[in-house]
Amino acid sequence: xxQSDYPNLFQAGEIGGLDLACRIVTAPMTRVSAAAGxxxxxxxxxxYRAFAEGGFPLIISEGTYTDKEHSQGYLNQPGxxxxxxxxxxxxxxxxxxxxxxxxxxQLMHAGAxxxxxDYVDGTRAPSSIQPVGEMxxxxxxxxxxxxxxxxxxxxxxxxxAAFSQAAENAxxxxxxxxxxxxxxxxxxxxxxxxxxxxxxDAYGGSAENRARFHAEILAAVKAGASGVPVGMRLSQMAVNxxxxxxxxGADDARALFSAxxxxxxxxxxxxxxxxFKPVFDGDRTLAAHAREYFSGPVIACGGMSDAAAADxxxxxxDADFVAMARGALADPGWPNKIAAGDxxxxxxxxxxxxxxxxxxxxxxxxxxx
Length: 369
Ligand SMILES: Cc1cc2nc3c(=O)[nH]c(=O)nc-3n(C[C@H](O)[C@H](O)[C@H](O)COP(=O)(O)O)c2cc1C
Known about the structure:
Blueprint: E1 13-15, E2 18-20, E3 24-26, H1 42-53, E4 58-65, H2 83-98, E5 102-108, E6 124-125, E7 149-150, H3 153-172, E8 177-181, H4 187-192, H5 207-210, H6 212-224, E9 230-235, H7 249-262, E10 267-271, H8 286-293, E11 298-301, H9 307-315, E12 321-324, H10 326-330, H11 334-340, H12 358-367
Parallel strand pairs: 3-4, 3-12, 4-5, 5-8, 6-7, 8-9, 9-10, 10-11, 11-12
Antiparallel strand pairs: 1-2
Flavin mononucleotide binds at residues 27-30, 62-63, 106, 181, 183-184, 233, 271, 273, 301-305, 324-327, 352, 356.
């Protein structure tokens, strides 16, 4: 099997005016490996550059915090909030560009799922509800989450302004686009889910109201990131509850996807594991639901390192692009190897356990060379 067996994967595509040589991108992966001060490192330059060298035309960065208030989620998470962080990321974007790739920055606010914050105490969320589940040990967490304080409208305005500034900073650092982390149980997702949003103001109640924060963050980021594409990542699952589903099912999906379309997202990135599994007790994938209501490109993520399944997602019209996380980590040369008919290495949990750090992955690779 080689490139000609996967005609859908190996065709050129476009996201927000950027031409991409094939339809395979890397998914965002938190690596909790930044230096003190939230600075991207030389090790991170090599990590990201390897994906470009391996044939991924587009890389999406790990979730990066947006302010020195409550956005940070993890110890050793990188930020994009000051000049030193911009300069550190600029060396990463240069490394990727030098290998012929493009890189988007994923902007993230952890909300109630914050496990560590260098700047402030306490956590913030739409409502004061303790998250279910336990902190992720491989991101340096342990035990139950804190109970967050409910965000005031003044704090919500500050978060929007910070996302806008972070987007401007990301463009200054040389990123080719921005992805907003609206998925996986973090702050935006907390606004959308009725399990975590009990507000009785304009952000609570109906699906349209619960999608308002996504729409406003999108508008704020678009204002800050003029000239580059801005996409939104969405999921039903949450990192603290993999079985989480949107309580309103297909109606929630319609409201959220339509809001992203109406507010001009340049792409949607749908995380659903596995991406080819139907949702809402029906026969269509979450990506297919997105395509029904969203007019731009849809990236499908979740189990897409199965090349036949990934090619099939695009061939069936469910998605325009596929993203992979664990498959790319296992083998940063995945696209080039599949194109050449070689077998890429497959993921082993030892690459991200006991810690999801780059050091741990490098040690695993050295031991299993
Ligand atoms: C080590 C690791 C870190 C991750 N960090 C992020 C992140 O920062 N932002 C995000 O949106 N998803 C994150 N994810 C989720 C992945 O992007 C992806 O949605 C998930 O792993 C399913 O895709 P896969 O089957 O290709 O691995 C992470 C996944 C892994 C394995």
